[in-house]
Design goal:
Blueprint: H1 13-36, E1 43-47, E2 59-65, E3 83-89, E4 92-98, H2 109-112, H3 114-122, E5 126-135, E6 145-153, H4 180-193, E7 197-204, H5 213-222, E8 226-228, H6 232-240, E9 244-254, H7 265-274, H8 276-289
Parallel strand pairs: 1-4, 1-5, 5-9, 6-7, 7-8
Antiparallel strand pairs: 2-3, 3-4, 5-8, 6-9
Length: 291
């Protein structure tokens, strides 16, 4: 599946051993999943902080706690249930991760993006991602749904660091990290349904602290409209695998001068939960339109 040439030097045996073990784990996990569900979806969804209620929109066929899946990481963050779901949404078979993994939890980037590698092995072609984020754009309001048009990677480790996995080139192009056709379709859906959406650039930093006012200001100067702690590594690996990506950030707090207030994880979850139905409608209608 992965090809014969692993682009590894024979004199670097420790890296080669790790690489081959990683590939074997991906294959083992994919085979386990295929043996436990008859569904073969081409679309996957990743549900972020406070966004697990979208899973209630799914007509579930099979579900597996992460702890039961070979080699799968386990989410440690409140608001991330930790289930892999197979079912139907918008009349189409889908795979959904109810909870994701973060670098700040102590995972390596290979572990953070392990699900995307497994998605490729399972034949996933489209990936929808959601997250809760802090808005740095002064025109944004709490509860806004931001269609992610691009991203800035501000995390300390790149998910493609190390030997190249032959799902894509050593130096993958990222000029269209977020699929333009998906974005245009989402705009049309929002317009037809009367759903307010904004658009912008998402910046991923390390976490787990929320940003200081000075950091928010810096990120805005760098071109970010929203800031969070996830999504970007997953998109990078998905694009390396040739998977089309679409993402929505729910603006749960504001990092705008004069509007910054103390924020807690519980408040972020509450703000995300309030607008989940609108995001679910966009996801559902968009999935319906996928050929």
């Amino acid at each position: 599946m992965w090809g014969e040439n692993q682009n590894l030097q024979d004199n670097n045996k420790p890296i080669k051993t790790f690489h081959m073990t990683y590939l074997a784990q991906i294959q083992e996990t994919a085979e386990w999943i295929q043996a436990h569900t008859a569904l073969r979806p081409q679309t996957a969804i990743v549900l972020g902080t406070g966004l697990g209620k979208l899973a209630q929109e799914i007509d579930v066929v099979d579900e597996f706690p992460y702890k039961d899946i070979p080699n799968f990481p386990v989410s440690t963050v409140e608001g991330h249930s930790g289930r892999l779901i197979f079912g139907h949404l918008g009349g189409k078979p889908i795979m959904a991760l109810e909870g994701r993994f973060h670098y700040y939890e102590g995972y390596t980037m290979q572990e953070v993006t392990f699900p995307e590698r497994v998605m490729y092995a399972l034949g996933i072609k489209n990936l929808f991602l959601s997250n809760a984020s802090g808005g740095t754009n002064p025109d944004f309001e709490i509860g806004d749904l931001m269609l992610i048009t691009d991203h800035i990677n501000f995390q300390p480790e790149h998910p493609l660091h190390g030997p190249n996995i032959p799902t894509g080139p050593r130096f993958p192009d990222m000029s269209e990290a977020y699929d333009r056709a998906f974005l245009e379709a989402a705009r049309n859906i929002a317009r037809e349904k009367g759903i307010k959406v904004v658009e912008g650039v998402y910046l991923a930093d390390q976490g787990p602290t929320y940003e200081t006012p000075a950091e928010y200001k810096m990120y805005r100067l760098l071109g970010a409209d929203a800031v969070g702690m996830s999504t970007v590594p997953e998109v990078i690996v998905a694009r390396h695998c040739g998977i089309r990506c679409f993402g929505i950030s729910i603006i749960t707090d504001l990092g705008v001068e004069g509007k910054i207030v103390e924020v807690s994880h519980e408040e972020v979850q509450k703000a995300a939960n309030a607008v989940q139905p609108l995001m679910a409608e966009i996801f559902r209608e968009l999935i319906k339109k996928i050929d």
